[in-house]
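JOB MANIFEST
job_type = single_chain_structure
chain_count = 1
residues = 135
[input]
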Amino acid sequence: SPIRVAAGMKPVHSSAKAPVMTPGRRDFFTYRDLGITEGSAGKMRGTLMKAKEGMTEPTGWHYHTCESQFVYCLKGWVELEFENAPTVRMEAGDSMFIPGGCIHNELRTSNDIEILEVSTPGELGTVPVDAPAGH
């Protein structure tokens, strides 16, 4: 039998020519809503983040209240440090899976950073925390 569309889900188009901008976590980024939350009935979220300018200071240690995040670097670079994992420099073409609740800190970015971020579920909260031991 054919697969049926899950309840509440629908096709949603996000136009680059008429982007839907949304408030975000950081003042130095712009955030474009990609319509994934609406299309997935809240099961996922997708955002295109672009720098207004490069980061001038780290974001501070934090974690996100979600199941998971998938981050794909489209342009530029970002350096991230993690509790219990190595520091990573993501560059254009690199991707990263970050489990929800994973404590991390964005250290710096290029002035032209562009990141595609997809998370589950459709709501993503940010909780600041103290730096882990050794950081």
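[summary]
The chain has a mean pLDDT of 92.
The first strand starts at residue 20 and ends at 22.
exit_status = 0
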